[in-house]
Fold:
Amino acid sequence: MSIENEPQVSPAVSTTYRRHAVVLIACVLWTLGSSALFWWLGPGSSVGLRMCGGSDRCETRLSTFVGGAVLLGTPVAFVVGLWAIARLIAGSRLVASGTKTFIFPLLLCAFVIWAGSFDGVVLLFAMLIVAVWTVWSLIKAIENPEQRIPRAIKFAMWIVALAVGCLLLSWNRSEMRSSADRIVQAVERYHRLHGAYPEELPATGMDPATKPHQGIRYHAGNQKASLHYFDPIDPTEDVWSYDFEAKRWMLERE
Structure:
């Protein structure tokens, strides 16, 4: 086939590709930058405490502001980035034209399953969005009967994604508690043998840096010990703490 007969990409399509690529790059940079900012100035950051002149109240307000910005901005960047990826794929020859309308919902469902498996707030927001979209979609399906089957498929995708996300969240929550209980047993066994609580978890044979112990925090001092982890149902508010004296778990809200 000669070069003259090969299909040419119009300037408008090329410009659209570039715009979607720029949007995707901006979303990636935002996500990486916000994650770095949260690590740098988030809760318990020594940098934030120095910036506030040692004031705990100022550091708390700063970390709350940074955490809120990351919490609100990062999911938006993820969704917009997925939209840009879907548009880039849909504009290519990688998929059939009849399936292009399902690319963005499929990517969005995958994100909901992944993020919702360890954060119940994501699932809650997704449920609210799906509820609003369902009402709007029903109205559109009544107005345009030819859209009923594609919209029904999208609705089924959302239901499956939410169900899988809820199942994974429940499993992750159960695994987190089981892991925390194993750490409690190891700490109490160490206390019975040595008459004091271990200063660090590795002394008990537990490695907090490996799964499934990640996310569980242990502190010891003044003949006391504390163990806590954030509840995956609402990791922004709910914290489970273990009282080694009363030998029971307590739910606290930050």
